Task: inverse folding
């Protein structure tokens, strides 16, 4: 049984869904951010698989940019978490309900 | 079953286990360790897919820099180690995400996708070929990425700074 493009696509779809579960059910901001990193990596895997099976390096360059954006996102997200923790002394997103209807 | 697919299925299984651990472990530090494992396994998959440069970058940037940042913030904040018992959202979120996976998998598992990779040249995925692509077609996004990183640095400093002295 040969490993085709669809195997990689299904693998990354499953990992993306696991990341979605993490974002939906966890009640810790740091773990939510980690789940987002997991989702970004699943998308990167899709890009690299397509680049391999279609014979184009463009996918790899896009992954390079996704990594840059992910690094920026992690830095800003963690800075926001630190600043929220200073004011609220908690990492539970359910405690942040100032804008909740 | 040949050795290549055996390696793929082994890596895929380990990757799924590591990702599930990231989501379902209750200790934040254990979650971070599972995430490092998952990122390293993805780097191995990148190298298998003839993208050695991206695989090395994955190890350095993700498993190195970003995860050190995460662990540093966990150490810095030292939050209550175990989070509270999850309520009704636990099942609801899992069902929603399973629905998403159930929609994506039939969409992606179709037969018309190529099963054989294009024969890779010697240079495919090498830093040289990547740089040629990056500095010719993608030079504008490259510059924009540098501006984005600058904004992220300034934003992080401003956000994490203690409040102004009044």
Result:
């Amino acid at each position: 049984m040969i490993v085709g493009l669809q195997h990689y696509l299904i693998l990354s779809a499953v990992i993306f869904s696991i990341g979605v579960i993490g974002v939906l059910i966890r009640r810790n901001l740091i773990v939510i951010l980690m789940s987002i990193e997991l989702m970004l990596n699943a998308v990167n895997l899709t890009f690299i698989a397509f680049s391999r099976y279609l014979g184009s390096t463009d996918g790899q360059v896009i992954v390079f940019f996704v990594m840059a954006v992910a690094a920026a996102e992690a830095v800003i997200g963690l800075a926001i978490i630190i600043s929220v923790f200073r004011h609220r002394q908690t990492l539970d997103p359910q405690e942040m309900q100032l804008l909740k209807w | 079953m040949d050795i290549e697919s055996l390696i793929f299925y082994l890596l895929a299984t380990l990757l799924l286990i590591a990702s599930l651990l990231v989501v379902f472990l209750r200790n934040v530090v254990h979650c971070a360790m599972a995430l490092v494992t998952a990122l390293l396994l993805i780097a191995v998959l990148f190298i298998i897919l003839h993208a050695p440069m991206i695989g090395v970058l994955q190890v350095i940037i993700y498993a190195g820099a970003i995860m050190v940042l995460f662990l540093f913030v966990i150490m810095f904040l030292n939050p209550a180690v175990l989070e509270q018992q999850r309520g009704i959202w636990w099942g609801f979120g899992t069902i929603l995400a399973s629905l998403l996976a159930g929609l994506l998998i039939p969409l992606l598992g179709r037969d018309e996708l190529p099963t054989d990779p294009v024969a890779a040249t010697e240079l495919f995925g090498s830093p040289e070929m990547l740089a040629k692509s990056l500095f010719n077609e993608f030079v504008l996004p490259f510059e924009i990425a540098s501006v984005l990183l600058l904004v992220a640095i300034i934003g992080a400093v401003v956000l994490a700074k203690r409040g102004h002295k009044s």
Q: What stands out?
A: The radius of gyration of chain A is 17 Å. The first helix of chain A runs from residue 5 to 25.
